[in-house]
Predict the 3D structure of the following.
Amino acid sequence: MTDLTDPVLKFAMDKDRPRICALDLDGTLLSYGGWQGRDKFGEVLRGMIEELQILRDEGVKIVIWTCRPDTPALREHLDTNEVPYDYVNEHPWNGPDNPRKIHADWYVDDKGIPVDGVVKGLARRILSHRPWWQEEPWMT
């Protein structure tokens, strides 16, 4: 029998909730050249606003999912740059367990390593991965 009290299972089976995209901030939504300070932000990557608007038009909720705290300066930067988003580091469909890793249909991150069911070579892929902003010619 299915345990419908399990929050992950409830999230996955909830047909009434919207699709959710969890999007990292530094190096994914915004340019990034290393930590500059809590309220110092890079520029929005070219074309990102248009891509996020396509998701919004399809009914996807966009969650900015970042290690940064949700500060007024962060929201001001997003709003000033007209970034389409719905939530920062949380959303109302996350369930009562409130884990740090929010429930989402997609996770978009510059440091993500996709797992396609084939684990052979995974350690090598992890150890050799560098975010795009650490690779030439993107470094400044």
The chain has a mean pLDDT of 87.
